[in-house]
Amino acid sequence: MSAIKKLVGQTAIYGLSSIVGRLLNYLLVPLYTYIFGSATQHYGVVSELYAWVAFLMVFLTFGMETTYFRFLNSEKDKDKVFNNSFVSVLLINALIILPFLIFSQPLANAMLYPEHVEYIILLLLIVSLDAITALPLAKLRAENKALKFAGIQFSSIGINIIFNLIFLLGFYDPEYPEGGIQMILMANLFASFAKLVLLRKSFFRIKFRLDGALTKRMLKYAFPIALAGFAFIINETIDRILLKQLLYANTGDLVYAEAQVGIYSACYKLAMLVTIFLQAYRYAAEPFFFAQEKEKDKNKTYVKVMNYFVAALCLCFLAVALNINIFKHFITNPAYHVGLNVVPILLMANIFSGIYINQSIWYKLSNQTKFGAYIAIGGAVITLSLNFLFIPTYGYMACAWTTFLVYGGQMMASYLLGQKHYPIPYNLRKFSLYLGSAVLFFMLCKWMSLEVGTLQFVIHNSFLLLFLGIFWFIERPKFR
């Protein structure tokens, strides 16, 4: 089996758990928007809390997944590498989570939830369990146990959905919407605990000691990755947090601020359909790229993978953007549809993000992870600056355009630095053709401004098929 076919096969299995799993989780969005009704602020609270989860995950895993893959290919004692990675994550969790739990009330006050400290406690427990299980799941990926990985992920997702349905459809009281938020967090906590139980055998083999020399080298490698990850999460999720805080500071109306977060977050979910594919790909790609490092034709493989990857992302962009009048029904309450204009902007932003993530292999392979930190920190500074400047005036549209500009800038910065320090001869003509065609087809459909109906559906999806035809015509010889 060729290297590319192996990657495709692994991505398909990881994709099954990631894509189907994400889709199942996304089915909760219609449930939440239905349960909370036109009071979009309650969904805004849920969205903001999960933005904080993403932040904490970066701190608690501290780049150890990528570090584990890196050292797994360079160290003879594989068990020691896993043991060191896992114990490091465990210690980091203890150092961060325990103080946060102790000071959970001040945290709740700062996050504008003074009467709901339980939100903070549940959130901290969820993120800690997810961080602790991250390394055992990474070990399954490194061992190519994709089916077992998928089974554990499916089980956790299934438990989350089942308890959401039981709690919200059976016990939710519209007179006390805060109870619904608590139920959503409790369902997630049960799902995270289920992963811990299913991975229990991995914990029995852990020796609670660290190899000092190896730990020092691993932390040195991991620190820039963790820093880059933190900056990346700022780019990805800080907008929801700032949207609430800045709009509240500007208007003094907390309900309005949370409602805007709810609208933006619901529409953001549609844009994240691109990242479903991206997440599936990342699970398979990172260990694959490290494994390819010693191959003679590695650069040829990296280039071919990137060509297919960019085309696949553009296809996802067109599928959603050209059929937004269908996808919008995924958000059951029309009160959220006012924010649909952000979807194409965020879809393209996520394409830029995907290309940047795929390119980032150059600094991981060359042990120059500091460049990843530089790029991410630069993006984070711009993200914070633009959001602070424009959210008070333009609301969530400022968030969308900031994301677009930052991800586009990071993509270009990574390419230029990569060509200087670890050159991979990517085919820029194909990049330009695929990205240009996707944007052109979208703009043509926008310009035609057809009425919603069968004619619009046929014409829009004819452009989708045309893009697929262009891709097939160009790449077909490569499949042989």
TrEMBL record:
Q: Does the keyword Chaperone apply?
A: no
**Which InterPro entries does the protein's record reference?**
Poly_Biosynth_Transport (IPR050833), Polysacc_synth (IPR002797)
Top-level division of the source organism's lineage: Bacteria
Q: Where are the transmembrane segments?
A: 12-37, 49-69, 81-104, 116-137, 149-169, 181-200, 221-243, 263-284, 305-326, 338-359, 371-389, 395-418, 430-449, 455-474
Cite a GO CC annotation. Answer: plasma membrane
Record has Membrane as a keyword: yes
How is the protein disposed in the membrane? Multi-pass membrane protein
The record's subcellular location field reads: Cell membrane
Keyword annotations of the record: Cell membrane, Membrane, Transmembrane, Transmembrane helix
Q: Which PANTHER family match?
A: O-ANTIGEN TRANSPORTER-RELATED, PST FAMILY PREDICTED COLANIC ACID TRANSPORTER
Q: What is this protein called?
A: Membrane protein involved in the export of O-antigen and teichoic acid
